[in-house]
Amino acid sequence: MAKQDNTFGENLKSYSMKIKKAIETLSKGDSITVGSTPKEIIGENRLYRLLHYPPNAIKTQTPILIVYALINKSYILDLQQDKSWIRNLADQGFDVYLLDWKAPTNADKYVSFNEYVNSYLDESVDSVLNQSSVEKINLQGYCMGATMSTMYASLYQEKVKTLTTISPVIDTSQDTTVIGNIARHLDIDKIVDTLGNFPSQKLYECFSILKPFKQGINKYINLIEHIDNDSFVQNFLRIEKWIYDTPPIAGETMRQWIKDIYKNNKLFQNRMCLEDKMVDLSKIKVPLLNIIAEEDHLVSPDCSAPLNKAVSSEDKQLMRFNTGHVGLIASTYSQHNVLPKVGQWLKAYASI
Asked: Which of the following is catalytic: 78, 260, 296, 303?
């Protein structure tokens, strides 16, 4: 009995030490580094930076412009060296550019999708075309960025060689996620009219209730249990940094996102207007690669998949992967399963 009590005491002491170490580790989380792939800024204004990541292999002729979402920060695409979407594409020989959105200020509360797509995205495309001396780009978007890329391809496809969408929000009538249900019942007019921009705290509150146990208690239990595994800890801290690094969203843009796309499903029904331009998905004829995650808890796979039927592209492919929203772009699984297939598909259209 004494031996059992001694073993229990030792285990308790060991676990207590791990808890203490986990607390100390979390307190230093702000110092964790992200975005290690070499880059240069080739364009910038108050709401975006256009970043260039030169290729690490034989350069393909057509550059890639990645459009990130307006939610959280784009360094999830370059989280760490062995889990970097951007580095992997550069290693495959692609000339990669990233449209990195800045946080809007109170002066930007009236900025809408019209400015984001017709001005900032179009300006960035022209900058890439000029720098690369080509006539078309490979356009690639993630989440909300994929939705914006789809809008852009509908309006400016003369500048687009291929379109790659990763977890795009398209047919919101098929979105059964908690986020989709919140969006359909959100009084966005009251929030925007009162606060201006949609605050970052409200965004985090929405995400924190998606998987309260997994994203709350359980993840910290996992950290304690793996606190002596440096690789696990470093990856945990980077993801944790990204989750809490949530900028506000321009008020009018958020109003459109909720009312036009989620509540009224205007994008999928070809009824969405950006200023005087009607976004018609059926006008898209460029080759399409639509990538979805079967375990996505932020964008239902059934919300993303209808894009393939909505466009008029003769060459269109739907790739499904057994992972989640973030796992699709920032994981070992992504490096070994998703990116090789993306690169192979793109190289079929890129002259060496």
From this structure: 296
